[in-house]
Amino acid sequence: MQRLLLVLIAIGLSTVDHLPMQPTMAYSITEVASIYSASGSDDRIKESTKDGTMYGDVYNWADMIQNYIQQVAADGIQRDQTQMLFDQAEYLYEKKNGTNVTMQVKQELSAYFRKKKATAHRIAEAAAEAYNRHYRQVRSGQRKIAASLSDLSVDIYRDSDIPHRLANSGMTLVPFFRQHITYNFSTIKIPDDVPRDLNETIFTVEWTYELERIFNETYQNDSSIRWLYFGSSTGVTRLYPGREWSSNFVGFYTDYDPRIRPWYIAATSGPKDVVIIIDCSASMEGEKFGIARSVAKAVIRTLTKQDYMNVVCARASHWDEVGKWHYFKSEVLSCQETKMVPATIEFRKDLMEKIDGLKPGGTSELEHGFQMGFELLNSQPRTGCLSILVFITDGKDTDGETVRCGPGYYTRSGYVPGPVCKYNWTKVWSVVNATNADSKPPARIFSYLIKDDGQMFPGALACNHSGSLRKLEDGENLISRMDNYFDFLARVAQNSKGLWTSPYIDAFGLGTMVTHAVPVISTIDTGKPRTIGVVGVDATLEEIETYVTRRQWGSVTSFLIDKEGQTIYHPLLKGSASLKDDPIFIHIQRMEQNKKSIPKEFNKVTQKMINGETGMIAIENGRRGISKGDYRAGVKYETMPLEYYFTNIEDSEYSVAFVLSKTDKVYRKLIEPKIEFEELVPRNRSYFNLLIEYNSSTVLKHYPDVFKYLNVKYNMSKKFQKLRITELHSSIFFAPKCYCEPLRYLFDDDLARKTLDAHEYMNTGKPDTGCHSPDSKATDQAIFEAGSRAYVLVTQPIEERWRERKFSWIDEVIWTYVGMRSGVFRTYPGHRSVRPYDPTKRPWYSRTKSSPTKTSISTPYYDSAGSGKIITISQAVFEGMDNKTDGCNVTGKTKKPGGCPCEEGDECTSGYCYISAAKATTKEIQQGKRCATERIEAITSLDLGYNNFHRKVYNLMQASDGVKSCNAEYKCPDGSPNCKTVCYVFDNRANVIMAADFIEATDLDEGRYKGVTLGQKEGEVMMNLVFRQKLFQRDESVDFQGTCSFTAGAPRVTMNGIPTTPEESDNLYKTRGPIPGFSNSYGCIQDVISFEVNETALGRSRMLVGNVSGPCMQGFYYVTSLKDTNLFLLVIENWRDRSKTPFNFNCLLTRKLVASGASRIINGTCAHDQSGEVSDTGGASGGSGGASSSSDNGQDADRNCPALNNVTIPCDFNRANVLQMEQVIKLLLGWIILVTVHLTL
Fold this sequence. Notes:
By secondary structure, the chain is α+β, with helices and mostly antiparallel strands. Among the domains are: 102-263 and 499-541, no CATH class; 271-470, von Willebrand factor, type A domain (Rossmann fold, 3-Layer(aba) Sandwich); 552-664, Beta-Lactamase; 674-841, no CATH class. Helix content is 29%, strand content 22%. Strands 1, 41, 42, 43, 46, 47 and 48 form a seven-stranded antiparallel beta sheet that branches.
């Protein structure tokens, strides 16, 4: 903040004044001055009026733009008519019990996880039996291992990388997997660096073929299975259902080694503590340090959340050959410098970011580096199960002629540099031996020598501490070349128990998932337990989320966490399907508490859920968040009494909670209007969005005339390119959550059957029993959630109002629609929607729901249906009004509930007061205004072509003097040319809705008009509004699920090859080729800056003015609100451009300082710090309030260490050298003792 203020001072921003009252008509400059005079502001107005002459014009323009928008909304959206339909509808009161709902979800999810877990253990038992049987047969001579893989039959060896091995395999496109697979057999995947003709490889392929039978049996018993697989310790994977392997964007099959996948490592090694010590001295410069980075990251990538880790960069300061001092120090890279951190995804990404940022330099100083490493290994928290120290160095004891260990001195002959640094390995040897002897458990040391031949010290050190050395000449195939480390992990733990992994992105293409991984143990070859591989059974997060969300109602929210308190699902986080990388899950306290850990009572909820308890905790000052739009728009939080109902999910490591407000306990459920379905004429029926399917044989058989009646047209105009539409009717789309089995709907490609089912559900009188009703018989299972049809029938009449609209700008309207909280979506003209579409999760829905009393306008964007640049105007529809008879006589600041008589919205809890068509107890109340209910029933919107909307608005902004209209150029006050009036319309988050150059941008050049912020356009004005006027409040947060790009965005030249219609998007998985396109985006951690308007800063005048002069521009600005919308008008008079001045870096800086948006965090972040400890009585101490389950006296209290095998690692370092090293060290120690004694005497 201090730096920002210095910049403000540097660019000389002037003072700014407030206008004291709001005019109701146009005012001249003299009249505005008299307003100031009346309020005692003579001096201030005299100063500001020297530069400002457009007060009256700006007020007029704001009123005209506002009136235009409201007129478009009234004529186009017809919100009042939709509100009337819900007010006249009938509602049924249902009492809801949070405990019952929570226990229902527990029962369903527990059964789901139990089935997956049982399957994994069953396959693991079969794998152990098959291995033992084949091993005995080979050893006894009953069976011979084939000479090569090509000698094996196709049934045994179907290679995912060899097409002819998959020929005639009967693979078909299965929607449930979104790719070509076969349930008939499994396929084999062998890593690129595993020799295919090794006996171990061939033997693994042979014996794992016996798993085919149990794979098929599993599918027969559960057709909804996802991937089943066995990953062998040899690197071979057998996968079911069978598939051809994926290709990268250049056409090569991608590599895959199960031994480095999180599910394999977690299941085989058990919990461990790992410290990596990197020699960062100057001798490591160049390729060597790149290899060192790769080794460190390879180790980190294979750690899991059950492990603890940290990284030390070891080096020290030195002089150079001319006597200059260079400062370096050994440092711990994590945010936690004195202790280990859990190897969760966020900490792993943070450490890898910091490793990438390291640069070699300094002199070797490993003594202190190892001291730091052992201090970390013995700190708390840790697992205390297995300690590993990974040491990466070139083994050199000097760092070159430029690295000196003394300042040097001058003689008569000139300067004499200090001595070249030569490192004393003896000290390190002594420190490591002494410290590790006292460590519990002692650490095993794995050394990696990078390129050079200095193997004596790192090799001897590793071999002396039960580890080994590997020399690496380059960074290729590191996993195979680091086999000493990974093979040890696979053999050390005697662990036969399975576990659930952290969620990760599936390498086989099914999105985010968790795996139940079970190690397969055999004793037959060594007599001791040995892990021969791991069985994995997958469960997608999409399925798990569905179980949680399908039980929600009204404004109820729910969330799912793991045993560490990490949030697996939360309505304010991105859905699992939209993640670009292995997800970073935020601690639940960051979601439910503010930065001060309020409400503190939520700590009890967290602790009980982590402990796996069941119960309910009421919090008086609970905190409920509502998204304001997309994930970068921020969240609106409301404080209210909340009740948290929670329970654990058996056979998993998760707990679920449902969050209810007091009003959620009694749910007003919309019920169907009384309709004689048999008497419905075609004009009064509703039609499903898959219009073309009405022409399918399945539907024609039952409804032969519907398709012809709908008069479906294709590609009828530029607005509807490549779309099938009907102008006779709107269409109905049911979001996945409207279906009893959302995933079956998503992956079912029988579109004709879907259309028939939906049409009959909407237009016939079959009982709407719903999914969980006891009336639903097994032979007649319901398809839709109960109550979905009510929304269809209640909104059907609005279709006629949309169809019969007559106003001058009707041709500018593209789509008109209403999205209801149930997930039902009605849109006109009727057309298809994409299959996973959910209106309640769209930015226009969230944005309007967060400010329901205002008309909400979106930023311009490119229409996904191909209609070019558009904007969306949205309004909220409140739940049908209740016939209120009590609770209306309130006093003080108490607000009136919905249904009570009112005069202004400020009197109401909902903030909205209107004349309702709902029933009332008296005629007087019926005819007067009443408060809207607190709950939102729907959001109704229309999409307009941007360019015409832009022209209309700018045409309204004509100056009264005929000179200073928007975009007009004129002489500046000092007589110089090139001044102009610049105008912007922006929203309450400082996003520019309208700018002069937006209309010049081509539709495909979204970067020039979508998501452009006011700070990017007018940095000086934005800085003034933020720091001086306080119109905007700045908020900074960290997005652990961000998306970054490798290169800067560029405008599209064409949309060819990119899905532009719902049909193309739904069919993409069918039509895409085997080679994926190059993706420019990847998952990253981002710093997110956002701004939120503080409307009280406008004062009674509803306007702010100011004179600014900076490196980008100068001018006099006016800001006023467009009342009853989310928009504001900025007009800059006498605007003069300075941005094109050569080398104007200050302009760029000014705009950057106040630009909202997200940027990648380059050097890691401490925002994911989880060091806080939760107590039952208070908040979290330290960090960001994350829960820590570590104890103070030993290993983590929640971790059970598996029994460890006493694995003897062959010391690959030459043993003679080890003995030589030990002898040298003993001689050196003896010499030091003798010298010390001599000096003492």
